[in-house]
Amino acid sequence: MAKTSPGEFVRQVQTEARKVVWPSRQETVTTAIFVAIMMTMLALFFLGVDTIFGKIVAWLLTLV
């Protein structure tokens, strides 16, 4: 494989950077809201699971 000179490398990076398509403000806001909703739902789910398992373990420890 041929080595690339630093100048050529910089040109290649600039060429690739021009191809980047940034999301619009609306897409970013929509995605952030979706992530916040999913994070809240998962937090509540794991809180419920943890509470149930905690009660089961507490009940099992009373049997000893």
From TrEMBL:
Taxonomy, superkingdom: Bacteria
InterPro entries found in the cross-reference section: SecE_bac, SecE_sf, Translocase_SecE/Sec61-g
TM ranges: 32-61
Annotated membrane topology: Single-pass membrane protein
Keyword vocabulary terms for this entry: Cell membrane, Membrane, Protein transport, Translocation, Transmembrane, Transmembrane helix, Transport
Subcellular location: Cell membrane; Membrane
Keyword Transport: yes
Sequence similarity: Belongs to the SecE/SEC61-gamma family.
NCBIfam families membership: secE_bact
Subunit structure as annotated in this protein's UniProt entry: Component of the Sec protein translocase complex. Heterotrimer consisting of SecY, SecE and SecG subunits. The heterotrimers can form oligomers, although 1 heterotrimer is thought to be able to translocate proteins. Interacts with the ribosome. Interacts with SecDF, and other proteins may be involved. Interacts with SecA.
Record protein name field: Protein translocase subunit SecE
Native source organism of the sequence: Novosphingobium aquae
UniProt keyword annotation of tRNA-binding present: no
PROSITE patterns (alphabetical): SECE_SEC61G (PS01067)
PANTHER family hit by this protein: PROTEIN TRANSLOCASE SUBUNIT SECE
Database matches in Pfam families: SecE
Function as written in the Swiss-Prot or TrEMBL entry: Essential subunit of the Sec protein translocation channel SecYEG. Clamps together the 2 halves of SecY. May contact the channel plug during translocation.
